[in-house]
């Protein structure tokens, strides 16, 4: 029987734009994702987050679901334009009240609030002023963090500054498959830097406002990069620099990796990095959030065969892999989830052990892991999502293997509590352990939710 450590933090995760809806209520301003989803052709089926899971109006019901699941923590994100409609200036009270009720509702149910400040919904006004490639956005982000620290700092258990800045920078500004749909590689690297800087400034702001017991964190979608053969070592190095060390370097060591600067020299001279920025990005963290779905396989491109680009991040016209023109992203063997992502939990164990090796002493939490499948509601109303249970079981086992080998992993959050707006895929991809009926908004527990409840209650994986 596989058993987890006693105080292991079991949770589920969601993000504001994916679940809240109420996109134009109570003074909320527009975000880049409203603009993106309202642009014809960018999201599958023309879906938008206008209503999403209507979580904004069904807060109590969803809180009760969390309590019934028995989770010890809930990871949600704050919609920046809900609390600061234009991304600067005074707070929008009704918007802030929603998060205050959410946090109080969690605490009343003995669930630790884990708040992500930025899960991709930049206020549109800040994008109009240049977005993340514009340095001022990092300053605005820190101001917003201070505001949130002032408001909720006495009650939030863990603050996560950014969710997957990889996606914000490269999918938002290089490949353009995410908001704000720009395809400007140099701007994407400037965005990357201002996200790193914004993270550091936000941690600093939160440390002065939040309770001293509050944990500071950031969530990265680190890529576990493997080469097809030993000849692909340089392709692995390049992808690793761009995907992982571009964030780990400044945030944890206070410096960008030299090879990254050299690799991208034809794209930018990095003059947007000012003296002191790297030190400002590097603030001591209490825990590192790791999102993991599948590993990445690369090969040095021979320049003649058709170049494979199966990185799992949708084919935009441009690549998110800046200055990696000679790197191929190779399709990996199945089985696959509905996202087309291969299922390979060994990457999670290896990734956790690498972090443990490279950054000893920094506790880790899996802030997202889960799978989309085309669930079927059976005639008896049950959703027998055996494949999702199998995916979760495999990955949780992989976590225990990393723990047994020495990694300090403190918690695990399933993505996601409920089916929601899966960005450019709209509602077509269902990641929830709870089903949301798109017509009635009714929530129904899938078999995986019942399974997870048992895991949480016992701290063991049922055989
Ligand atoms: C991650 C995102 C999350 C969700 C999952 C499937 O990249 O952080 O919002 O979309 O992927």
TrEMBL record:
Domain of life: Bacteria
SUPFAM superfamilies assigned: (Trans)glycosidases
Catalysed reactions listed for this entry: Hydrolysis of terminal, non-reducing beta-D-glucosyl residues with release of beta-D-glucose
Gene Ontology BP, a term: cellulose catabolic process
Keyword Ribonucleoprotein appears in the UniProt entry: no
Keywords: Carbohydrate metabolism, Cellulose degradation, Glycosidase, Hydrolase, Polysaccharide degradation
Active site positions: 164 (proton donor), 368 (nucleophile)
Residues at which substrate binds: 18, 119, 163, 293, 415, 422-423
Gene3D superfamilies given in the database record: Glycosidases
One of the record's GO cellular component terms: cytosol
A molecular function GO annotation: beta-glucosidase activity
EC number(s) recorded for this UniProt protein: 3.2.1.21
Family membership noted in the UniProt record: Belongs to the glycosyl hydrolase 1 family.
NCBIfam families in the cross-refs: BGL (TIGR03356)
Protein name as it appears in the record: Beta-glucosidase
């Amino acid at each position: 029987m596989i058993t987890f450590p006693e105080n292991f933090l079991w949770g589920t995760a969601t993000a504001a734009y994916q679940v809240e809806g109420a996109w134009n209520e109570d003074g909320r301003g527009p975000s880049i994702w409203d603009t993106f989803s309202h642009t014809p052709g960018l999201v599958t089926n023309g879906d938008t987050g206008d209503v999403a899971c209507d979580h904004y109006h069904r807060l109590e019901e969803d809180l009760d679901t969390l309590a019934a699941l028995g989770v010890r923590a809930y990871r949600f994100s704050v919609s920046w334009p809900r609390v600061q409609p234009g991304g600067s200036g005074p707070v929008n009270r009704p918007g802030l009240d929603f998060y205050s009720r959410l946090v109080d509702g969690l605490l009343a149910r003995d669930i630790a609030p884990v708040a992500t400040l930025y899960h991709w919904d930049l206020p549109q006004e800040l994008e109009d002023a240049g977005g993340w490639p514009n340095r001022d956005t990092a300053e605005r982000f820190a101001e917003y963090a201070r505001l949130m620290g002032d408001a909720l700092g006495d009650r939030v258990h863990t603050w996560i500054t950014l969710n997957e800045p990889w996606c914000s920078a490269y999918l938002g500004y290089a490949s353009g498959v995410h908001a704000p749909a720009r395809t400007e590689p140099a701007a994407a690297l400037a965005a990357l830097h201002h996200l790193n800087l914004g993270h550091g400034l936000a941690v600093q702001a939160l440390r002065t406002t939040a309770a001293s017991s509050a944990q500071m964190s950031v969530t990265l979608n680190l890529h576990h990069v493997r080469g097809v053969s030993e000849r692909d070592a340089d392709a692995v190095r390049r992808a690793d620099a761009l995907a992982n060390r571009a964030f780990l370097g400044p945030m944890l060591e206070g410096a960008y990796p030299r090879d990254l600067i050299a690799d991208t020299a034809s794209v930018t001279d990095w003059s947007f990095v000012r003296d002191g920025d790297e030190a400002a990005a590097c603030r001591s963290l209490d825990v590192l959030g790791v999102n993991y779905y599948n590993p990445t396989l690369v090969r040095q491109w021979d320049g003649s065969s058709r170049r494979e680009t199966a990185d799992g991040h949708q084919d935009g016209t441009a690549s998110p892999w800046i200055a990696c023109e000679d790197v191929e992203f190779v399709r990996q063997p199945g089985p696959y989830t509905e996202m087309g992502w291969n299922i390979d939990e060994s990457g999670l164990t290896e990734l956790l052990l690498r972090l443990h090796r490279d950054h000893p002493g920094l506790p880790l939490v899996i802030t997202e892991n889960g799978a989309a499948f085309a669930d079927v509601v059976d005639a008896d109303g049950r959703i027998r999502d055996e494949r999702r249970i199998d995916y979760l079981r495999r990955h949780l086992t992989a976590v225990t293997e990393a723990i047994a080998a020495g990694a300090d992993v403190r918690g695990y959050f399933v993505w996601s509590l409920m089916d929601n707006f899966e960005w450019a895929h709209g509602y077509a991809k269902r990641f929830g352990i709870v089903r949301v009926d798109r017509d009635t908004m009714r929530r129904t527990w899938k078999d995986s939710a019942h399974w997870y409840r048992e895991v949480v209650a016992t701290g063991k994986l049922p055989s």
